[in-house]
Amino acid sequence: MMTDNIVTAIDVGTTKICTIIGRRSAQGWLEFLAHSVVPCDGLKKGNVTDVAETAQAIRRSVDEASSRAQITVKSAYVGVTGTHVSFENRWDKMEWVGERGVVTATELARIPEGARPDAAEADRRLIHALPVSYAVEGLKGIRNPVGMHTTDVDVESHVVTGATSVLDKLLEAVEMADIGVDALVLEPLASGEAVLTRDEKKHGAVVVDIGGGTTDVVAYSGGHIFFSTVLPVGGFQFTNDICLTYNASYPVAEDLKLRYAHTDLHAVRANEEVAFPVVGRSSDLKIPRRDICQLSRERAQELARLVKLKLQEIPIRSLSDMTLVLTGGTSALPGLDQLFRLTLGTKVRIGIPHGHGLIPDDLRAPAFATGVGILFWAQSHPEAAVSDDAVIRSQTVSRSGSLVSHLFKQVKNVFPTHLFPVRNS
Length: 425
Known about the structure:
- Helix 4 crosses helix 10 (about 370-380).
- The two termini are about 25 Å apart.
- The protein has helices at about 50-70, 105-110, 165-175, 185-195, 200-205, 235-245, 250-260, 290-310, 335-345, 370-380, and strands at about 5-10, 15-25, 30-40, 45, 45-50, 75-80, 85-95, 125-135, 140, 155-165, 180-185, 205-210, 215-220, 225-230, 275, 285-290, 325, 345-350, 395, 405.
- The chain contains ten helices and 20 strands.
- Strands 3-2-1-6-11 form a five-stranded mixed beta sheet, sandwiched between helices. Strands 14-13-12-17-18 form a five-stranded mixed beta sheet, with helices on both faces.
- Strand 1 and strand 2 form a beta hairpin.
- It has a domain at about 85-165: Dna Ligase, domain 1 (2-Layer Sandwich).
- By secondary structure, the protein is α+β, with helices and mostly antiparallel strands.
- It is globular and about 80 Å long.
């Protein structure tokens, strides 16, 4: 948890672990102290596949950041994503409301208790229950019922759950790194905290966070999140296309993507060539640069179409009314924003973390949106940190850190956003 005003965020990505350490200033703003990024091969499409490898990468990243900040990190807010995450908009009766004759903020803070997965969903665990609106005595559209004299309140929530087996592995990896978990934070939600303005959330915005293994999509309207999904396509697929086409190693293909890929073929000279080593050849292979660009363009078109199909599922008058914000490391691919603009027919921009000029220049990049956003989430939701009798804990025996069992209770990890406004726009 946050002690001495210190808060730590860990972005557990498919290809990297990013740790960012911050501190609350005397004025209540967030001061960034240090960060560290280390590669990680322990995940696939956002899911932990090698607990030991992931734990080792987390430990290295935390050690580097804590050494630079000259503090000891004992716990952190941890990002979660992956194809196992599912989402649902639902109404729940707040049966505990009005016990004192009037609706209180404390009662609203118990919203996650009413959104727990039922017995038929024992294999799933609640991550967030994000309030969208309320109904008082059957009247819907109430934004804030605090102070109303009633015992009849329903809440509409955007409920985020994850597969228990997958979350167990993530938590085990963090615990094996000797780090406690304050709370889990949905990564695209965190990215939205870092790259969107309040006006964009109010008038309609979509965050498309293109990470290494997945693309996370969240949509906002009226200041609240109302849609989210995870697509199993990310930067890995862009690189892997080059690997498979030319029999290049993954490091070589990644370098080719970063140095030469572009989604607009006409932005590259027709006679420009690139040479690189491939498996099974004694000499470098030389190809037109536009061939690399064509692979990237085709993969980007597929991703843009997938995003468009998903967004067609949400209840909006027109996608053109929304602002689409691309973020995550792969969003830096040249020409990607223009391709999305043409495919989806809406305003598109690249999302860079912002926050009253307090963010260091080296964190002002799309690749750091999730890590910075987790810190913003922790800053504006300090009560989300679990208490000693709450959820995320494990029991370990043996110095190797082998996990015998996880004892979980339901996390009380979210409060109404209108009660704890984010101070980053």
